[in-house]
Amino acid sequence: MPEINDETLPDEEGMTRPGVVKAVEKFKLSVYGENYDEESDMGTGKASDASKKQKKAAENGAKESANYNWPDLADNGHVCFLVFQTRWCLS
């Protein structure tokens, strides 16, 4: 496989120029604030409560989805009915 030059990557030499470094630091300061600790934001490798909740919701959705014969529902035009019926029940 031939080597491909990724044109979307930033110019490494240009990114190390003092003016660019200063601009990046100003941007980080304006976005994250003065008390931002980049290393502590990388996490401990443990799943947060939000990610656990999201994973559980995805697993529940996969289980629920397995209860339906999607090709048959699509062929008979019942997918839209099922979606709106479920939404109606949840409201």
From TrEMBL:
Domain Ku70/Ku80 C-terminal arm: residue ranges: 2-54
* Ranges of biased composition (kind: Basic and acidic residues): 49-62
Show the InterPro entries listed in the entry: Ku_C
- For the region Disordered, what residue ranges are annotated? 37-69
A molecular-function term among this protein's GO annotations = DNA binding
Q: What residue ranges are annotated as transmembrane?
A: none
GO BP: any one term? double-strand break repair via nonhomologous end joining
- Record's protein name: Ku70/Ku80 C-terminal arm domain-containing protein
Tell me what organism the protein belongs to. Populus trichocarpa
